[in-house]
Amino acid sequence: MVAYKSKVVERIHLPSRERRERALEEAGYNVFELAAEEVFVDLLTDSGTGAMSDEQWAALLRGDESYAGSRSFDELESAVQDVMGFSRVVPTHQGRGAENVLYGALLSEGDVALNNTHFDTTRAHVANQGADPVDCPVDRAHDLTVDGSFKGNFSLDRAWSIVDEVGAERVPVVISTITNNSAAGQPVSVENTRRVREFADEIGATFVIDACRFAENAAFVRDREAEFSDSTAAEIAREQLGYADALVMSGKKDGLVNAGGFVATDNETLFERCKQRAILYEGFPTYGGMSGRDVAAMAVGLREAVEEAYVTDRLEQVRTFAELLEDAGVPIYTPPGGHAVYLDAASALPHVPPAEFPGQALVCALYREGGVRGVELGSFAFPDTDRPELVRLAIPRRTYHREHLEHVVETATTVLENQEAVSGLEVISEPENRELRHFTASLEPISH
Ligand code: F0G
């Protein structure tokens, strides 16, 4: 049941088919290069693209822009204490700012960081410290169709085998990303979180939770982990996050704001180290690269994210979207994650070989057919890895209605009905750093 109504709206329109064809060509068949105005339903990301509540807009007006000692920071600190259970907060401009602050304080050259799956920016920040980011997903994480309640879990078996190989002293940091964005937004159980805590204790490592989507994860736990069936998402969030030594947070997800992030911890030594790095890279530690008003809005957003009505509706919307796609015969990763539905492009376009980027071909076809923007997360975004050919359709929070999602389903159905018309792509130009090529590379359709 939707627990909000619209008070402010933004006009969107579907450009003509000719215009879409031209826009795609001008963008080099890379949807990151499209002007947002040319997009009808924008499912590129759930990050910073959601709608704020009237309470958040009100907080925005009350934001305190003082350089030091801002009242808005006190509000954030209380929200983090109440919702997440941590006493010390270092605000940052967004999640990757928090990663730079925290991982710079925890990692050195030659270290290894273990994570259920590193998100791209996490991987880059770990590597930027000269450390080696190693993923420890469970086997079923990359199985697109196997059923499972917690396919996002951290594999202790994998983690132990790495520790046996490199030695515990080289692994100072263990991270659990909840939900696991790079594993199709799958949740992590509290039981798994406890076991990661024990593992971190055994090897003497700091346990970090990447809490970007902590509220969605808590709602999954309520629905799927028997021990918590009578608990609220708010209670579960505090329990689960409480196992960590520190959190990295992007407020652009479950902070329900358009900008912002933070590090949170109870460890005074770590707090001091993070504070010093924050002054260098982010700003004075009572604003951290955000304006006071953004800090104030994030303080309200964190509390709203764990409200039962909000977070239940959030998961329900994603699940309904997935069901509509499945009913229409569109192949997807199952079960759906908390913030997105991932299409299985290899099954959707079996005539496009991996070398011709079926995921990117599908992304382009969705835009051409219905002005829908998704993002490829397969062999185009991750060259030289054997990831499944997925296309992520991320749902911004409190933004689109069922009708928008029905339009996406119709669009995908039409694309699949005419799949032979979708050709593969080749890369025409790409930046020096191949790992970031999907943001700026240009492509062209291949005519056979
Ligand atoms: N960690 C996770 C798990 C994320 O999903 C993201 C961002 C970050 C860290 C970095 O946060 O963007 O505020 O700097 N994910 C976005 C996405 C970009 O589209 O999935 P940020």
Automatic annotation (TrEMBL):
EC assignment: 4.1.99.1
Example of a GO MF term: tryptophanase activity
Keywords: Lyase, Pyridoxal phosphate
Domain Aromatic amino acid beta-eliminating lyase/threonine aldolase: 42-409
Co-factor requirement: pyridoxal 5'-phosphate
Gene3D superfamilies named among the record's database cross-references: Aspartate Aminotransferase, domain 1, Type I PLP-dependent aspartate aminotransferase-like (Major domain)
SUPFAM superfamilies (alphabetical): PLP-dependent transferases
InterPro entries: ArAA_b-elim_lyase/Thr_aldolase, Beta-eliminating_lyase, PyrdxlP-dep_Trfase, PyrdxlP-dep_Trfase_major, PyrdxlP-dep_Trfase_small
UniProt enzyme class: lyase
Keyword Lyase part of the UniProt annotation: yes
Keyword Lyase: yes
Family: Belongs to the beta-eliminating lyase family.
Protein's recorded name: Tryptophanase/L-cysteine desulfhydrase, PLP-dependent
